[in-house]
Specification:
The longest helix is centred in the N-terminal third of the chain and has 10 residues. Strands 3-5-4 form a three-stranded antiparallel sheet. A two-stranded antiparallel ribbon has the order 1-2. It is extended. It is an alpha+beta fold and about 100 residues long. It contains four helices and five strands. One of its GO terms (molecular function) is DNA binding.
Length: about 100
């Protein structure tokens, strides 16, 4: 006879007491708003503006006005401020016109 594990039901609420100390300090450092975290990873930002992660990396390199935080000793981990989402949703590229010409 085979023993099967009971099915787990998804939890509909977030129990703050289950968060580790590291998780709490991470959330405090990043900051959150009603829409989510104040500082987004490249992947989160790319999903919000519906572009590829590589495009976000190019935008960061090309636009010195873009609000970014560099993390870690080498600065290769980047967080982009949520306000940049609205700026980039308008469809303007910080590197100029990227349409192909024939």
């Amino acid at each position: 006879m085979w023993h099967t594990a009971p099915l787990l039901r998804p939890v509909a609420f977030r129990d703050e007491s289950l968060l580790s100390v590291a998780d709490r300090s991470k959330e405090a450092a990043v900051g959150t708003t009603d829409e989510g975290p104040e500082w987004l990873t490249r992947k989160q930002f790319a999903a919000a503006v519906q572009v590829h992660v590589g495009t976000v990396s190019r935008w960061i390199a090309a636009d010195p006005e873009m609000r970014v935080q560099r993390l870690g000793p080498t600065g290769h981990r980047v967080r982009i401020h949520r306000s940049e989402v609205d700026r980039h949703r308008t469809g303007t590229s910080p590197i100029g016109d990227t349409t192909a010409t024939g």
